[in-house]
Amino acid sequence: MLYPHCQPDNSVKALLLRLFGLQTQDGTATAVLAAPAQTTAAAPEPATSSPDLSMQWQLPARQLAQFTQWMLGPHLGAPSPYTERAVLAALDRVLHSELSGSQLIPRVPSVLPQLLKSLRNEKVTAGDLAQQIAKDVVLVAELMAEVNNSCFQGTQKINSLDKAVQLLGLNGLRMLIARNAFRPLIQAQTGHLTNALAPLIWEYTEKTAQACRILALQRGLDEFTAFLAGLLRHVGLIIALRTIDQTGVTRQLPASARFQQSLTEQALLLSVHVGRQWQFPDTVLEAVLHADANEDHAPDVNTLSHCISQAQQLTQLYLLQRAEIVTPAEIEKMFAEMPQLLECCTGLSARMDIA
User: pTM of the prediction?
Assistant: First the structure.
């Protein structure tokens, strides 16, 4: 028996898979972004005077060290003061530049902000949205692929754009469109470090956004705002890698702790810089900027920044478990030592059916 209050058939692997929308309770695949339109999220529970203990947990610091080593380790080289100065100077120049006019980030396709604006209109119809989506061939392809996965389709393939819009629902469309806006950042891989690391960072980003969305639902926060914050959090690291590639001074990241700390700080600021360029809400920018502060101080569990912090930790745990760096036995030990973490994961996993 793993833990006294966990269902016997709810294995560590299945729990983490379900948490990220990759497996339902019966083992079948499910969509990563959204449920059908007719499904509605449960109303948030009324606030109480005592905090929800399931929200008060933090994974060991060694997990972040393990994750950083797993992700960056193969691309670390010997410390070099010259390389470090050159790279950090280049990142500083980017931070003080107008990113929208550079090749470091793509321009947002004009249809995306129009669609996001339409999605805020309660009177908008599926037909109106389908007309706008039809202007972007890539977005049409993404939408049709999304609804024709095993979560949405019955026995017949969906070929109608109007029907696809109805099935995905407004929240699903918001998240699909947001993800589509970020995707060119990953696809424009133009250097050694970017080619090697951008796909992995994007997977980390997508899963963080998904976990952040469901954590927000648990706290009664806006799920789309949380999803945007999760998507934005690590975009700066990809831009930083692209900048390093463009300097031509190194094909590896200096392994000094001081450089890695500076890179982390600069990448975070770049993420916020991108958010400002794309006119993201101030609530998203503030949450992203202060997410890591929750790891050093007593957090307010009902804030968006705390959702991002915990979403990152859960995603790290998932990816390390999948890579067999963290074993199921180690995760079971975490659950035993932090029953609130198990309670949180179980609650989030259950919400996959309604989110």
Answer: 0.77
